[in-house]
Design a protein that fits this description.
Elements (H helix, E strand, L loop, with lengths): L9 H5 L18 E7 L6 H16 L8 E7 L4 H13 L4 E5 L1 H10 L5 E6 L18 E5 L3 H14 L5 E5 L5 H14 L5 E5 L4 H11 L5 E5 L3 H5 L1 H10 L4 E3 L2 H5 L4 E4 L4 H14 L16 E5 H6 L6 H6 L2 E3 L1
Helix pairs in contact: 2-11, 3-4, 5-6, 7-9
């Protein structure tokens, strides 16, 4: 589960985003501390493994050692809401000192199960609007952490789609429209649809077969393109989405880099690994006595644009010079 920490500039981020105590000065209690980890997708997923590896590395740098003064309790899902609720209840029943979790779909069940056990979250869309915290500066309650892309940045996805595929006149948006986070992302894109002269529709599909069927139906029309928003559905079923987009030659914009390394065309979003390394700092602060209510929620400091040149070529799409110059990374 090795991670290229240097490439992702984690060390630089430590000095600017979160103030970390030094491992030498941190005073650790003698008793074993327990950390629960709840992820919404499979433990075998490479992206999940990379994120956990970054978190554990951060803890080690702060002087914590699994098996010596830390015991980890892991629970993972496969995009199933009922399983997320069961996993949340199981972790809370273990009475851990703190729980690390990912996404709105797991934080919701955790907060439903406890308002006492401290929670550090990563990649929460609109935590204030979703009712997860009172405010970014003063979260209140038992949860704090790192938010993800804001709604204002969602319009960038449509702009990028039109830049790399100017002929697109119809756009289908993947996401979980049943959640406030999903609705907010979709609404931000829909608000700009008319100005870009595109027809808009939403695709909310629960499994890989439904995704393939929905994309096949959409592809019957001409001049179509896809936008994938942030949700556990899109992460868990990203393989099916990428495969269907390639099969029907649909230009597609994704919210995170790992979609593009997996064969997607283009992505715009924050780094998905750094926040887990930084989350170790929040966990350390809580284990040393601070309250989540008093630790501000951090927002992404930087968004990255990633383009897969091999996929662009397969789709017959020339990448405009402006995108070449703006890209943070070109793959293929």
């Amino acid at each position: 589960m090795a991670i290229d920490i240097t490439r992702r500039n984690v060390i630089a981020a430590l000095g600017t985003v979160v103030a970390w105590p030094s491992a030498a000065s941190a005073r650790k209690p003698e008793r074993m501390r327990h950390i629960g980890v709840l992820m919404p997708f499979s433990a075998n997923d490479q992206e999940a493994q990379d994120r956990i590896a970054a978190f554990l590395q951060g803890l080690r740098q702060l002087g914590w050692t699994e098996g010596r003064d830390l015991r980890m309790h892991y629970r993972s899902g496969t995009g199933d809401a009922d399983r997320n609720r069961r996993n949340a209840a199981e972790l809370v029943a273990l009475a851990p000192d703190v729980i690390l979790t990912t996404g709105n779909e797991t934080l919701g069940p955790l907060q439903g199960a406890t308002r006492i056990v401290p929670i550090v979250f990563v990649q929460i869309v609109d935590p204030v609007g979703s009712g997860m915290v009172a405010s970014l500066a003063h979260p209140g309650g038992n949860a704090t952490g790192f938010s993800t892309i804001d709604y204002g940045a969602c319009g960038k996805w449509l702009k990028l789609l039109k830049e790399i595929a100017p002929d697109v006149e119809r756009v289908a948006v993947f996401g979980d429209h049943t959640t406030s986070a999903g609705f907010g992302q979709s609404a931000a894109i829909r608000a700009l649809a008319q100005s870009y002269q595109v027809e808009f529709q939403h695709i909310n599909t629960p499994d890989a077969d439904a995704i393939k069927s929905a994309v096949a139906k959409f592809a019957r029309g001409s001049n179509g393109g896809l936008i994938v928003t942030e949700s556990w559905l899109s992460i868990v079923h990203r393989g099916a989405i990428i495969e269907a987009a390639a099969q029907y030659r649909l230009p597609t914009v994704y919210p995170q880099r790992f979609f593009v390394t997996g064969g997607g065309l283009i992505s715009y979003g924050h780094d998905t690994i750094d926040p887990y390394h930084l989350a170790a700092g929040y966990v350390d602060r809580i284990l040393n006595g601070e309250k989540p209510a008093d630790i501000p929620v951090q927002t992404p400091a930087k968004y990255e644009l990633v383009i897969n040149l091999k996929t662009a070529k397969a789709l017959g799409r020339a990448v405009p010079r402006a995108l070449h110059e703006a890209a943070d990374e070109m793959i293929g």
